[in-house]
Amino acid sequence: MEYRLGRFGVGESIGKAMSIIIDNLPVFLLTGTLVGLASRTLTPLLESLGPLGSFGSSLLATLTNSVYTGVVARFVAGKYLRPDSLAGDAAKVIRSLPLIMAAAVLVSLAVMGGLILLVIPGIIFSLGFYFSTTIVAVEELGPVAAMKRSWRLTKGHRGDVFGLNMLLILIAFAVMVALELLGRLVSPVGVPGLAKATSLVTDLLSTIITGGMTAAASTVFYLGLRTAEEGLEAERIAVTFDLDGIEGATEGDPGSAGS
Predict the structure, then answer these.
(1) How is residue 254 annotated by DSSP?
(2) How far apart are CA 22 and CA 82, in angstroms?
(3) Fewer beta carbons within 10 Å, N or C terminal of the chain?
């Protein structure tokens, strides 16, 4: 597919995300499998520790989701800016991981607080801060700065963000139902070992498809918002990635790309 920046609508963002996953399937399979296996292996061990283990498993879920979101966000954004390598950006994601996790936790707390108070504020917070972790991963901002930037960037577009979120939830639900049905069809009754293997495969596929789709579509939509709202072209956004070899990348005011 052609990676050209523009103002992407909800359906177009999801369509492009699907094309990105298909075109780069080995990357998503490898990353999603590693994340899924880590979660699948460690979660039962943590839950066996009692209340403290439950907290640990929640923290692990935040960690694995943050890793996958960060890697996918930088990979997808890199595809729109230049041919990029997952390995090169993976190191940056690892370094930014504490900030990505902090942003995820702060957003969750803000949304939970809003829901407890009056439901509607929680929904508004979830939409306004929707791109916070993506912004931390791509622009390498701190969690609070990323939340502020997400709030400004989504202003006037929160209806579209709501539509994107709802459509991704419906897709995730449909994928999980389809994988559950597929697992029951291919797993013979009375063969426990095969049943466990099938369950593992379907869980990993769910992580790869739903997690990858959500992160990729959100990143595409975020880049579209930046292009529309800030008038940025690929060369100017590329400053965020410290890309020295792109013609015109140093023209204008580079600092404005991360403002």
Answers:
(1) G
(2) 18
(3) C
For residues 225 and 86, give the distance between their C-alpha atoms in angstroms, rounded to a whole number.
24
How far apart CA 151 and CA 157 sit, in angstroms, is 10
**22 near 14, Cβ under 8 Å?**
no
Position 244 confidence tier, pLDDT thresholds 50, 70, 90: very low
Count of residues in the chain: 259
pLDDT, tens digit (0-9, with 9 covering 90-100), for 140-182: 888 899 889 999 999 989 999 999 999 999 998 998 888 778 7
Among 105, 90, 95, 113, smallest CA distance to 143 is for: 105
* Residue 148, number of CB atoms within 10 A of its CB: 16
Distance set, CA 43 to CA 56, 94, 128, 151 (Å)? 8, 21, 31, 33
Give the CA diameter of the chain: 67
Q: How confident is the model at residue 46 (pLDDT cuts 50, 70, 90)?
A: low
